[in-house]
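User: Need the bound-state model for glutamine:
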Amino acid sequence: MSKLPNVTTSIFTVMSKMAAEHNAINLSQGFPNFPVDERLTKIVSRLAHEDVHQYTPMSGYPPLLTKIATLVKSSYNRNIRPETEILVTAGATQAIFTSLLALLKPNDEAIILDPSYDSYEAPILLSHAKPIRVALNDDYTPHWENIEKAFSEKTRMIIINNPHNPTGKILNESDFEKLELLLEKYPNVLLLSDEVYEYITFEQKHISTHTRPKLLDRCIMVSSFGKSFHVTGWKIGYLVAPDYLMKEIKKVHQFLVFSVNSICQVAVSEYLDLVNINEISSLYQEKRDYFRTLLKNSRFELMPCEGTYFQVASYANISKENDVDFCKRLITEYGVAAIPISTFYADEKDLKLIRFCFAKDNQTLEEAAKRMCEI
Ligand code: PMP
Ligand code: GLN
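Assistant: Bound-state model below.
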């Protein structure tokens, strides 16, 4: 008997595989295809010959923990204790899984806002807790009244993802005020804040939970160096949580991975001294704008994109097919792979929306757009 009967292979795997089989341009799964900063690859090459190949301490390579604390201080003016409040993880995926498994008990309820990234549900179910899905508004802002209605005595956690995958929406001041008011009424509810795209926002500045004192004593903040440094395959990220939650999270972490890839930890730690993390947004803003300009004469309608490296587009002017079928045909007939947005919802949806990843070199974006303009 399956423990996760309704879980199937992730749409990111399915679409990337199909893209490879048909030699299509892969704008589906989110990963950059341009070269990694040479300063970072040089560090890794040098480290290969140094004594950095054995286990780091369980929470992370100590200098990296300190650098993360410095990064959080410089980005958000928050002081965190490296030894007790930071955990280096094998990507944000492991941070999310470990936190949910450590903190949810059987019959707890965890609120997820749809459309939502696919990593949240499985660890909730494996904890014998219950995911409660609440739809975002049509413009992808949270529907705070419906969220409040979904709260009960069983609610143990609410998960937010800001900036938001797949829609590129970011939360504003008023959203945070409403969230804080709501959580004040529910002192036992924890907040998991998936902020893996925290350094990829455009016109509007990212508001991190790090800057919200009312949330900090119950918040698990998750970030990913894979996104920030264009190295998704390294699977390295971290979480920040108050000591009393971190103690529980580490109990699971030590048996899930114990510690994370040492050479990547040392490399990221050294690189943090060299990189200007605020340049990441301008890099992706240029890419977003370029991709949108290239698609101006296509029949796709582009949705707003405030952050992340994803562009959502409507194909309602092009086809009446559902988004999964349309994505398949986009690959087989036009040689471009995208992600159907309906797969980010628990219930079946017919939205005619698909997601493109624009974290690509200009040549790739140009060729993909050329093909899309021919549709
Ligand atoms: N959360 C969101 C919203 C993501 O988009 C991703 C990766 N695409 C992750 C978590 C997982 O990040 P990582 O690759 O660091 O595990
Ligand atoms: N998060 C990436 C995306 O949204 C995919 C990561 C994965 O393949 N698991 O495309």
